[in-house]
Amino acid sequence: MRAQYSLIFAVMAVACGICAVMAASSRKPIRKAVTFLLAMLIPPVLGNLIIISSVDRMTATVGYYVYFLGMDAVIFALLYFTMQYCGITWKNKLLQIGVYLLLIADVVQYALNPFFGQAFSTEEILVDDEIYFKLVAYNGQAFHRMLDYGIFLFILMVFFIKTMHSPKIYSERFSVIFISMSAVGLWETFYIASGTPVDRSMIGFGAFGILAFYFSLHYRPMRLLDSMLANLAADMQESLFFFDVTGQCIWANDSGIKLADIKDENFAMAAAYLEETFGAIDLHGSEWSRKKEIKDGEDQTRYFVLEKHAVIDDHQRTVGCFISAEDYTKQELELQRERYNATHDQLTGLYNREYLYEQTKKLMDTHPDTEYLIIYSDISEFKMINEVYGMAFGDRVLCSIADRIGKGLSQHGVAGRLVGDTFGVCMPAVEFDTGYMEQILSDFEVEDGENTHSILIHIGVYRAVETGIDVSVMFDRARIAFSTVKEEYQVHIAWYNDEMRKKALFSQQISAELTRALREGQILPYFQAIVDGTGKIVGAEALVRWIHPEKGLLSPSLFLPVLEKNGMIAQVDLHMWRCACETLAKWKTEGRGQFISVNISPRDFYFMDVVDEIKNLVEEYRVEPKKLRIEITESVMMSDAARRIDVLEQFRQAGFIVEMDDFGSGYSSFNMLKDMPIDVLKIDMMFLQNAKDDERTSIILQHIIKMSQELGITALTEGVELEEQYRMLADMGCKLFQGYHFAKPMPLEDFEKL
Ligand code: C2E
Ligand code: CA
Ligand code: CA
């Protein structure tokens, strides 16, 4: 017996030691409590080893001390472990201190035992002819037992409560400890009651320590994991179908049950459903994944992605598989919507510009032998339509045009809204019928619910014959063509030609270079003499010239129309007025008495307060206002006559002399003359060019001059080229003359020499 138990205890002590070392190196927070418990188990086990192997009383007594004191330490360690394992803390500090004091008291009373013998002594007995030292317990020992039992029962109770109150999947880790502890406790009780010299229950204690070590550090609750995974699978959005090796469906999650309409857990029918809906499903081969659209009702489509995953066990054997079916309809529709929004115009549903360009390119690339037309369309005065009839009507106009384009286009063409009120189309040239198109454009009407409104639309067409040019450039060429007809009422279609491009390029260049040209003095006035009936030069008209560094001398007819269009003419005119004032100031100091006439464009009024600007200039240069004559064309009076008359009045009140330029060239209205506060009437040279051989024109001319005389307006004729013209006009009563007959427009120095 001695040898057997010695061996068992020794092994137990070593096992506890090894587990303690292993526990110490664990990462879990509970490792300290476990290590401590295992380490504390070693002394009582060793104590029992000493007791059983000792042959003299002294050694046996030492063994008992090691055993009992070790048990106190075990109880302490067990208490600590329990608190950690169950996640509880001392709520009552007094109770904690009380328990610790009792344990210390127990240690103290053992220390006093050699002197008072109140705890225990040993008794020599013979078992199988061998000497053992049996424990004889006194009061002190009873105290020790009561204390240890009390704490032990308390701990048991804690584990019991934990076992009962924890969720099923967690109670396992508590119940195992509770049961094993109860067993050890009973074993211990049996030892005490039986009075055997060897405490065999120490084996149980050791075993318990190792169990605690396993459960707290290495136990992974499989059932917990299982149930977690099962819950996860059950709640998943994706439909899951699990198949065994034979290809029988054994389980499907809620979503799968709904999808396949599985009744009464009859999972076996899932395979048939999947085959029928998604096509053949291969359950045995390798993993696969595929997308599938299924029709759901009238025009509803649902989008699925189907995936097969093999289930493999630890030995790399396939034990089954599962199929997941994910309904990504929402994402797909969202994606389609985003794609649509990114490529289509919200209002009209046509392609947007980028996408039109892309599709045009694609069309041309896929049909290299087809000749295509690129069409640019624009609505006249769309801004005005919006302002007068409202944005809603404006939108309606855009939609009707988009509609019309859609109707007129075969599937071989593409159309889009470029920006604002402009549309673009690419279509095969053979499908374009110019006559038909003109007809559509000439009576395009849109209703606003009550009335029908005519909408003026122009288009520019570019024949895409040149290869290798960008789609955006093609549309730009169509736009250039458009811009040549945009003001016409009779013609609505313009075909692009190269001349247009050169012109457009020139316009662009002019506009881009203007500011620099003004700064560098490339733009300056030429002066054309104005003479009286005696041939004396009484003044000059300042006419703008651009001395271009590359193009040479540019006449205003080349660049002014461009600048009129984009409004930059105002900068030129302001510059011209300033030059005129500068010259007048210079002449004043030189004692020259001539005046200078400057031109004012109708566009100037949009960009500045013309009267104010000119008044400021004469003040700045201290020139007499009457020396600066103001030339205004009839067209200025065409729009908003009342306000323009006011402007002329302001000029005259400030002392300027106002001249009506180009009279007779345009839509001259004698009626207008009666209200116009002007001093000089500049009769257009166009009259003269015909007056020679046309008796009637000459009569009209004569009457204009006569009428002006009667109105107190000075008549000036421009474009006098011949001496006889001069004579004739003078005879008619004309007072002032201008024309190549006297002098051409020339630079200031030349003029001054004249
Ligand atoms: P305009 O005001 O009627 O100027 C007279 C034009 O007739 C000038 O052409 C002048 O060179 C030309 N001319 C003068 N005498 C004769 C002649 O005997 N025979 C012929 N065939 N032509 C003659 P220019 O300088 O080319 O100016 C053209 C137009 O440009 C001007 O017509 C005027 O409307 C405009 N313009 C010129 N300078 C300015 C300016 O500084 N500001 C504004 N707003 N317009 C200007
Ligand atoms: Ca003029
Ligand atoms: Ca003129």
Would you kindly provide a written description of the structure presented here, covering whatever features stand out?
The chain contains 28 helices and 23 strands. It is α/β, with parallel strands linked by helices. It has 4 domains: 2-223, Rhopdopsin 7-helix transmembrane proteins (Up-down Bundle), CATH 1.20.1070.10; 234-333, Beta-Lactamase; 344-495, Alpha-Beta Plaits (2-Layer Sandwich), CATH 3.30.70; 513-753, TIM Barrel. A hairpin with a 3-residue loop joins strand 16 and strand 17. Helix 1 (2-24) runs parallel beside helix 7 and helix 6 (168-194) runs antiparallel to helix 7. The longest helix is centred in the first third of the chain and has 30 residues, at 57-86. The chain is elongated. It binds ligand C2E and calcium ion (CA) (2 copies).
**CATH top-level class of the largest domain:** Alpha Beta
Bound molecules: ligand C2E, calcium ion
Q: Oligomer, anyone?
A: single chain
How far is the N terminus from the C terminus? Answer: 150 Å
Number of helices: 28
Question: If classified by CATH, what would the architecture of the largest domain be?
Answer: Alpha-Beta Barrel
Task: Give a short synopsis of this structure.
The chain has 28 helices and 23 strands.
Topology, please?
Elements: H1 2-24, H2 31-53, H3 57-86, H4 93-116, E1 120-127, E2 130-137, H5 139-165, H6 168-194, H7 201-217, H8 222-235, E3 239-244, E4 249-252, H9 254-260, H10 270-278, E5 288-295, E6 301-312, E7 318-327, H11 329-343, H12 353-366, E8 372-379, H13 382-389, H14 391-408, E9 414-419, E10 422-428, H15 434-442, E11 445-447, E12 452-454, E13 457-464, H16 471-483, E14 493-495, H17 498-519, E15 523-532, E16 537-548, E17 552-554, H18 556-566, H19 569-590, E18 595-600, H20 604-607, H21 610-621, E19 628-633, H22 634-638, H23 641-653, E20 657-663, H24 670-675, E21 680-683, H25 685-691, H26 695-711, E22 714-717, H27 723-732, E23 736-737, H28 748-753
Parallel strand pairs: 13-14, 16-18, 18-19, 19-20, 20-21, 21-22, 22-23
Antiparallel strand pairs: 1-2, 3-4, 3-7, 5-6, 6-7, 8-10, 8-13, 9-10, 11-12, 15-16, 15-23, 16-17
Helix pairs in contact: 1-2, 1-7, 2-3, 2-7, 3-4, 3-5, 4-5, 5-6, 6-7, 13-14, 19-21, 25-26
The chain binds ligand C2E and calcium ion (CA) (2 copies).
Ligand C2E binds next to β16, α18, α19 and β20.
